[in-house]
């Protein structure tokens, strides 16, 4: 099925504006799900941001992409991922996690960004088709506030075209329901078919091997320390033995002369 998101190429006479919004946390965790031992989460899995951005923007005219936003939580504020997104011309919106480690602020922030885009970019007023590309499968109700499915539904109701990218394991069924309701305006795409290109496994840092000379020096230092410790234990004993021997000699000489006189 062809994508409902059009980019205003020669095959389409309708001008097209594209707005890309990325939920980095959902993308990151979704990539790790089921990839560890016995189907567990593999925390070593990382995202190749440049490759992923190329796949999302494939066949899209760069001039038609009006918005590139990625949202994530901190710490760390200077994580490598944010630098990589910025290199791909994405604006990073970062927020703190809540006390119970939830990303309520992040979700609210991204929902607000999408709602703002919908209000400011009416297809009829802009005389251009408006397209939302959402990278997230999160369908949580967000403590009875806004949710991604709700803002996607709002975009569709306002005449937008929508493309949702997600990992199959982390896609909410709510998006599937919306796609069935708007089959000509919404499409769901999965990163799973591109896993080898968009993910990699971070290697654990290994301690550098020591040179033979360094190992020999360490062994010598350890031997010297052991000898010093042994001396500290034996020296007091030797001192007492010598003292006792000296007193015995002195006493013997004293008794000899005492008897003589």
Strands, helices and their partners?
Elements lengths: L15 E8 H9 L12 E3 L1 H8 L8 E10 L5 H8 L3 E6 L7 H17 L2 H4 L2 E7 L12 H10 L3 E6 L6 H9 L4 E5 L4 H4 E3 L10 H49 L1
Helix pairs in contact: 4-6
Work out the helicity level: 40-55%
Q: By helix and strand content, what is the structural category? A: alpha/beta
The general outline is rod-shaped
Query: Helix and strand string, N-terminal first?
Result: EHEHEHEHHEHEHEHEH
Strand % is 15-25%
Strand order of the largest sheet: 4-3-1-5-6-7
End-to-end Cα distance, whole Å, is 129 Å
CATH fold name of the largest domain, please?
Rossmann fold
Protein name: NYN domain-containing protein
Keywords: Membrane, Transmembrane, Transmembrane helix
Organism: Adineta steineri
Description:
The chain crosses the membrane at residues 237-258. This is NYN domain-containing protein. The chain has two domains: 16-201, 3-Layer(aba) Sandwich (Rossmann fold), CATH 3.40.50; 215-261. Helices cover 45% and strands 18% of the residues. It is built from nine helices and eight strands. The protein has helices spanning 24-32, 49-56, 80-87, 104-120, 123-126, 148-157, 173-181, 195-198, 212-260; strands spanning 16-23, 45-47, 65-74, 91-96, 129-135, 161-166, 186-190, 199-201. The strands form two sheets. Strands 4-3-1-5-6-7 form a six-stranded parallel beta sheet, sandwiched between helices. A two-stranded antiparallel sheet has the order 2-8. The N and C termini lie far apart (129 Å).
């Amino acid at each position: 099925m062809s994508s409902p998101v059009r980019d205003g190429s020669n095959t389409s006479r309708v001008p097209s504006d594209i707005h890309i919004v990325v939920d980095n946390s959902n993308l990151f965790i979704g990539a790790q799900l089921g990839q560890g031992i016995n189907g567990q989460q593999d925390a070593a899995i990382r995202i190749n941001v440049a490759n992923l951005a190329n796949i999302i923007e494939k066949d899209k005219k760069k001039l038609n992409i009006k918005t590139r936003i990625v949202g994530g939580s901190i710490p760390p504020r200077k994580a490598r991922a944010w630098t990589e997104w910025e290199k791909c011309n994405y604006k990073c919106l970062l927020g703190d996690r809540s006390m119970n480690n939830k990303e309520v602020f992040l979700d609210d922030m991204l929902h607000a960004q999408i709602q703002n885009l919908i209000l400011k970019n009416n297809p009829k007023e802009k005389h251009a088709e408006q397209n939302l590309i959402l990278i997230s499968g999160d369908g949580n109700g967000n403590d009875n506030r806004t949710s991604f499915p709700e803002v996607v539904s709002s975009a569709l109701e306002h005449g937008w075209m929508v493309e949702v990218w997600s990992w199959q394991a982390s896609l909410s069924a709510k998006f599937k329901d919306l796609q069935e309701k708007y089959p000509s305006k919404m499409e769901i795409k999965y990163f799973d078919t591109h896993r080898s290109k968009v993910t990699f496994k971070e290697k654990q840092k290994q301690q550098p091997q020591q040179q033979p000379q360094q190992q020999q020096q360490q062994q010598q230092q350890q031997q010297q320390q052991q000898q010093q410790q042994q001396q500290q234990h034996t020296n007091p004993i030797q001192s007492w033995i010598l003292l006792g021997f000296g007193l015995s000699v002195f006493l013997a000489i004293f008794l000899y002369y005492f008897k003589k006189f």
